[in-house]
Write a structure and sequence with these properties.
The protein contains 13 helices and four strands. The protein is mainly alpha-helical. The chain has one domain: Hydantoin permease. Strands 1-2 form a two-stranded antiparallel sheet. It has a two-stranded antiparallel sheet with strand order 3-4. It is found in: Membrane.
Length: 414
Amino acid sequence: MILFAFVVLYTSNLLSQCYRTGDPVNGPRNYTYMEAVKGILGGKKVKVCGLIQYLNLFGVAIGYTIAASVSMLAIKRSNCFHRNHRRDPCHMSSNGYMIAFGVTEILFSQIPGFDQVWWLSIVAAIMSFTYSTVGLVLGIAKVAGNKSFKGSLTGISIGTVTHIGTVTSTQKIWRSLQALGAIAFAYSFSIILIEIQDTIKSPPAEHKTMKKASMLSIGVTTIFYLLCGCIGYAAFGNDAPGNLLTGFGFFDPYWLLDIANAAIVIHLVGAYQVYCQPLFAFVEKWSAKKWSKSNFVTAEHDIPIPFVGVYQLNFFRVIWRTIFVILTTIIAMLLPFFNDVVGLLGALGFWPLTVYFPIEMYIKQKKIGRWTNQWIGLEMLSAACLFVSIAAAVGSIAGVVLDLKTYKPFKTIY
């Protein structure tokens, strides 16, 4: 995890210097990741970048829908456990909660542009601190109650019997590789870094502000990731759930678990919008260019809203974004394997978007000569991360295959 943090910090700094083509201070702006690749690298790489980025954002929306529904379900189940004193397993379907989350996102998706979701981002950050702190505190309390650290340096032992069966050596390999994908997903903000940087005021130069922001955010999140991961494993060992707050390693105080899971849901409502806005903007910009004479696509209608102001209604935006949210919700109901989906998304997006394109653009931007020490070092870093991504993808795909063996569409019960 520390290695991932250093790699992402380094490559995000390279990427931030590619916000402007030619010169990071005075060069022409690139408003999106795709525009940066087009302005610096050009050629077929632009389409490859766009395809990977927007497919990844689409996948993130599916992953967030799954995660939010699991947290909403956890609130319901924790209250059920409390009422029945844990005598009832309280099994429930997540479908209704995915639909509820989807309806919420349809409403928030009508926010026209990326720069207008800043307040959702702030709320999401506060919620993230809230549930992370709750998980950490409950983990410390569990360790104190156990009066010992569970788990081992080598992880779960082969032959251990868990709720999904006996752990084999093959399964341990797959799950270990899948974990790499999950870590990569946790550091996947590079896919919208350029779009975020486009909202930063200058002077000072945008890349300098972005470098400070990346260093602070990666530093803080890495500390939380390590603390929650290590304390969670120390508390539960081989029985550690996939999610400390929804896996019911903790049962009491149930109200605190409810607060933490509510914070997760609120965080994901905001995070969904932050990640989807670049995709929304791309489709709407392309459509406006394709059908420039269509009032349905381009016309904005002013709708006065009391105490808020004037909302600009665009019929194409309303319908397309609604269809998008409905589609991600249906796919989430079809594939409700959060850990496997997250691992696969992290694996597929990590190398190309977080490592390869930032390095290639930086080399071109700075005119670094082939076979120089700096060029060799950057290419070796890229190659190493490619192997990590491939390994993580293999592990995550194996995890999905295992899940599909016992899976029934739209009938997932927790």
